[in-house]
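User: I'm preparing a small set of examples for a lab meeting where we compare how different chains pack in three dimensions. I only have the primary sequence for this one, and I'd like the structure in token form so I can line it up with the others. Please keep the answer compact; I'll paste it straight into my notes.
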Amino acid sequence: MTTIAQDDLISSVADALQYISFYHPPDFIHALAEAYKREQSPAAQDAIAQILVNSRMCAEGHRPICQDTGIVTVFVEIGMDVRWQAVMGLEEMINEGVRQAYTNPDNPLRASIVSDPAGLRRNTGDNTPAVIHTRIVPGNQVDIIIAAKGGGSENKARFTILNPGDDIAGWVEQTLPGMGAGWCPPGILGIGIGGTAEKAMLLAKQSLMTPIDIAELLQRGPDNALEELRLDIYRRVNALGIGAQGLGGVTTVLDVKICDYPTHAASKPVAMIPNCAATRHVHFSLDGSGPARLAPPQLQDWPDITWEAGAQARRVNLDNISQNEIKQWQPGERLLLSGHLLTGRDAAHKRIAELLQSGQALPDGLDFHNRFIYYVGPVDPVGDEVVGPAGPTTATRMDKFTDIMLDQAGLLGMIGKAERGQHTIDAIREHQSVYLIATGGAAYLVAQAIRDSRVVAFPELGMEAVYEFDVQDMPVTVAVDSRGVSLHQTGPAEWQAKLAGIPIEQG
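Assistant: Understood. Below is the structure token output for the 507-residue chain.
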């Protein structure tokens, strides 16, 4: 009989969440480094370089890889010969570990969880509660897989129930382009097949916890039908040309993972969940000897890659910018932004729209005329930082507010990640505005460009408040120009055509 102490579980969960906030799994780093080597699209290769450089910076600085430090998902297997030295229940202990991790003063993690999800959506303040899945199994230890899943990739989960004879790979191939780039490719695609609706979704999530091994599979060839399906989906998805950040390129997924389960003869439930460029998960066990010990990866696990904006980048002064200037910018062009910009996410946009629609004034000091807005919810700063990791959030969620922000608020341009919808592209063209993207998954790198930060409005919204950032040489790319040409449309189309003649057999 093994005895697990309450404090050992709590501290192990807290340590694991801190660990995965700044350490990518080595298998992900190796796979991404190989993708960088074989990438032929300059824009996609540049994005991958930023992600890799950001990853190493976070490993060295012990700061979050992404500003979205995720919703905590925990898979627990409890041996039947385990007993507990505890006064708290299992979920209470795990949630206490989450609370300690996310409020750690040395590396505070962003609290993103809201309660009353269909109503007031109040932030719980400490990222609790976690989503916990428990199994009782033979044995005398507790095995835990813990993950922190970003909202951008989680929002792209898809589910269907196919007819028994339908083609799963075909469904994935047809569905994935509609997911857009908000999940920050390149990442891993998790597929769950069988069971019931909820079981298929759980299988897809569990599949993402397994190591990346597509290179080995490509080399040795498939041994069974599921491995054949993995390779089929891997080839089809990469042939779509979506590429890193949706800009067009050779690699859209680094691996395809599949878990299956017996199902009803009339059904074929299929779930698909992507993991983003901030892939975060770790496995540990408790055997009664104390808390888990997680060995840090070696710095040589990261490739020797540097990133620079490039001599061809256009330098832009945000404090002295005009509509005539942004008309000169071309899709795919690299810009280095300096000066002052405002920030805002979903909650702030909702409040701004409500004020404008009711004829009320915006809060004192909040003026969007001829300004740029950055869609971001930063991590709290530590030490001498002016702001913590501050990468972009998915711009598509702000599409429904774009008309009013451009027309009534007087906004000049927007910065985020992923594509914009056609209605928003039309509004950008009509107002001769512009949409720029920063690299998702490079939050710590982007934050190095922020020289000052202050809250301008809605401080009660926490990370969703409106800030003003003073930036210097913040790297962005023109994604939708003032004519309404979208790089997220032209880039993948170009690379899909190119890939028709390029083999995707590399590991």
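A couple of notes for your slides: Residues 10 and 128 are 13 Å apart (CA to CA). The chain has 15 helices and 19 strands.

User: Perfect, thanks.
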